[in-house]
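FW: tagging you since you asked about this chain on Friday. Here's the raw sequence from the shared folder, copied in full. Didn't touch anything.
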Amino acid sequence: MKASELAKVLGGTLEGADVDLFACGGLEEARPGDLSFCKDPKHVKLVETTQASALLLSPDWDKGAPCPIIRVADPNHACMEAAKIFAPPEPVRASGVHPTAVIDPSVKLGEGVHVGAFTVIEKGSVIGDGAVIEAQVFIGEGCKVGAKTHIYPQVTLREATIVGKDCIIHCGVRLGGDGYGFNNGRRPDGSVFIEKIPQLGIVEIGDGVEIGSNTTIDRARIGRTYIGPMTKIDNLVQIGHNVKVKGYSGLIAQSGVAGSTEIGYGCLIWAQAGISGHIKIADGVQVGPQAGVPQSLDGSIKYVLGCPAESMKDFGGRVLVPKMLAKLKAEVKELKAQFAAK
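HL: got it, structure written out here
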């Protein structure tokens, strides 16, 4: 594809030669024929050394480039759109049920549903119009899957799980497993007992939710574990029983949320953050990477770091002050040595 053609499609302006472009690549790994992008001036060194044949840059980029430039308002978004053009088409799943699938006669399949090989759908489940259920998926009794939802291979939906429309559930996701619920104590004779608390609730996933590979979301003890609309969950996230995520939030890889916690609208839980149970995270709060949150966050602080989590200002002070003190001690020692030498 000619750079001029791509610029027109992306609503941008070409500066430089009208080169041929065949694929997208990052600044460091791009090869001749690739399109790349940069949205942050701090990466100017990568721009200077890139082998890309053209770059998507913002209108105010003034650092130059070693190749033709396509000026666009949002280089990141434009690269995403370009990648769609260059990428091979996704596999088309024709409607119909593979002969090896096992589907209970009571299951209701909507129009245009695809069910892949060796999938099992148990009695009373309902699959919405245009849904794609890939190979080796297990859907337990009484589940509901919304229209145009795409469930990838080896996903498990335990009984009574509800998934909204237009969702994407990636490989290996487990929805509706038992939460970590146990009661323990001592009997009159002094012996210790540990008894399992029945997990009798469900998991409900709102419309437009995307759940990354190998994430687990536990069913509620009673009631529901709820993931609100348009929430985006990364791989390897653990969400405990009775958690409620109101919607339009993000949970990044290896983060964990303990039971009965409520996360507000528009929150972002960064990688490996841990959130304690029975607390509330206010709308719009961000929990930084590897932070530990032991108590509710009311929204007065919008970004927390550290363990226990605290404001960026407090975290920075706690981390930097010892370093500053060590530096000050070294300077004082040097000054004493200079005075002693005189």
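FW: The first strand starts at residue 13 and ends at 15.
HL: agreed, and The first helix runs from residue 3 to 10.
FW: great, closing this out.
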